[in-house]
Amino acid sequence: MQEVELRKGPWLEEEDEKLASAVAVLGDRRWDALAKSSGLRRSGKSCRLRWMNYLRPNLKHGNISAEEERVIIELHTKWGNKWSRIARKLPGRTDNEIKNYYRSHLKKKALSLEKECNSSTMNTSLRSECGTGSPCSINDDRRFLINDDILGPSDDYYSSDHAFEMLSLTRSPYETRLTEWMSTWPPDELYNQEWNYDDCSNSVWDFSLWDGE
DNA sequence: AAAAGTATCAACCGCCTCGTA
DNA sequence: CTACGAGGCGGTTGATACTTT
């Protein structure tokens, strides 16, 4: 049997359509079988990635909001580079998107915060809020992440307004709604609830929040 | 206006885990 | 129990867009 050479690189619109049709019929499992039977000259892995990161329903394309950014920061502080785990807490966002966003936006922000934290001109009270009063020690990906003294106890979303201010973030109307909505949750529920797009109708996530702007 | 530098993000790679035969 | 394949995950790459010089 001659192997069909698999395509790589950016997906064409036509391929997206084929993939979406195949998933509609076969479901989003058994990617290798789906890739073959759909006629796509793509690997199952490639199909899965395209579907998960771009085509599947309820994905929220576009800018990460300040509130989402805040959640990313907090969860990264708590869990490190567990992007898929973090993504499950952000409706409509993918692990890849969060990973990219963190690397391109937040890491930089963190480094500048560290620099500020370690600078000799930094006022004493701010430094004391950073931690023990001594310069930040940042050794790995988790380093930047601002310890719990800034962000508040890691299990408590609602005590993080201070960190939000320190990072110079602002809230959009959506973010305000989301914050208000999240504030109605008991803290445990926030961390225990995971977004599952298969189960949107039963999910605690309220997708109507996204549509208000 | 053009070249160089930087940022962004889609997609790939390779490893790991888990289910199944 | 073991081997194997599929899926999931995090790290990395490379093309393109954007910004700076």
Query: What is the number of E strands?
Result: 0
* Structure annotation, total helices: 11
How is the biggest beta sheet arranged? none
First-last Cα distance: 54 Å
Domain module tally: 2
The geometry reads as elongated
Helical content stands at: 40-55%
Structural class: mainly alpha
* Strand/helix succession: HHHHHHHHHHH
The fraction of residues assigned to DSSP E strands is under 5%
Low-confidence stretches: 120-179, 184-191, 196-213
Radius of gyration: 21 Å
Mean pLDDT: 65
Please explain how this structure is put together.
The protein starts with 12 loop residues before the first helix and ends in a 21-residue tail after the last helix. The chain contains 11 helices and no strands. It is elongated, with a radius of gyration of 21 Å. The chain has helices at 13-26, 31-38, 44-55, 66-79, 83-87, 95-118, 124-130, 148-151, 161-166, 173-182, 187-192. With 213 residues, it is mainly alpha-helical. The protein folds into 2 domains: 13-55, Arc Repressor Mutant, subunit A (Orthogonal Bundle); 66-212, no CATH class. The structure holds a DNA duplex (21 and 21 nucleotides). Keywords: DNA-binding, Nucleus, Repeat, Transcription, Transcription regulation. It is found in: Nucleus. Pfam families: Myb_DNA-binding.
